[in-house]
Amino acid sequence: MKKWMMMAMALAVAGSAAAAENKAKKAEADAEAAKAGWTTALNAGLTMTDGNSETLAANASLVTEGEKDGLGSVIAGIEANYGENTAKTETENEDGSVTVTETDETTIENAKAYGNVKKTLSPKTFAYLDGSVLYDDIALIDYRAMLGPGLGFYVVKNDKRELSLEAGSSYVWEKLDGESNDYLALRFAERYTCQITETAKLVQSLEYVPEAEDFDNYLLTAEAGIEAAINDHLSLRVVLQDKYDNTPAPGAERNDVSLIAGLSYTL
Q1: Of 64, 58, 91, which is closest to residue 77 (Cα–Cα)?
Q2: Phi, psi dihedrals of residue 6, rounded to the nearest 5°
Q3: Helix ranges restricted to H, the chain
Q4: Can you tell me the distance from the alpha carbon of 66 to that of 130, in angstroms, rounded to the nearest whole number?
Q5: CB-based contact 137:110 (threshold 8 Å)
Q6: Structural domains of the chain ordered from first start
Q7: What values do phi and psi take at 103, rounded to 5?
Q8: pLDDT tens digit string along 151-179?
């Protein structure tokens, strides 16, 4: 009898240990699955030249995005760009000596924070809330804030490709070269992502924001980029950005184009 009791106790302990191990594995798998649905990436790029002129261009951004089936998705981030040029001019003096004069000029100085939240309505449709705040010293934008809701549709959505279309309204508050303005605008946007290979990814987006009462006053933003993984955390990244403002601040250019190359580190 004692022998059977000992065997029963041993089986119970073994069963408890197995159950605990299975529970731990399930918790670990759930944690990994939850982690896989959310990513945070730190991106940075730096370009420097030296010689007759010295140039510096730096870019940094932090982006978080994730999705949960049946609920929706979130993408939010901050980014900043800075560039300067130092030109050297040599002047020969009467005594034969040479004086070198350096002139500094800021060529890029901007920052942006943005966020887009989608709420799933059906497997193909969603409601969204989109917002952003922009500062650009060279374009004479003291600030431009936009916020508004809308509806969207997934044209394609699978493990390798996703193409979404969005349409809604947005309210714009801006201050251009010291002059404040605000107005109601429409918003039309498109975003496409493609996992080209196991280690390479393409991301492209387009946004068109015209004033509701004056379609000649509009903003157009386009972006396309490719990331190629070096390892599990580090990737090479090249991004082309085009920002077009049809009614810029007086003295500012309508179009700004940036080509950014650097590294992306997934946290």
Answers
A1: 64
A2: -65, -40
A3: 2-36
A4: 15
A5: yes
A6: 50-266 (2.40.160.40)
A7: -120, 120
A8: 999 999 998 999 999 999 999 999 999 99
Give the span between the Cα atoms of 120 and 70, in whole angstroms: 6
Furthest CA-CA distance within the chain: 116
Cα dihedral: 24, 26, 32, 36 (round 10)? -170
Q: For 33-160, where are the E strands, in sequence order?
A: 38-49, 53-68, 72-92, 98-120, 125-136, 141-157
| CB neighbourhood size of 39 (10 A) | 12
Give the integer Cα–Cα distance in Å for 139 and 161: 35
Residue-wise pLDDT tens digits, 139-148: 999 999 999 9
Which residue type sits at 197?
A: T
Is the distance from CB of 127 to CB of 165 less than 8 angstroms?
no
| 166, β-bridge pairs | 152, 189
Give the 3-state secondary structure of 140-159.
CEEEEEEEEEEEEEEEEECC
Confidence of residue 99 (pLDDT cuts 50, 70, 90): confident
Using the 8-state DSSP alphabet, how is residue 198 labeled? S
pTM: 0.80
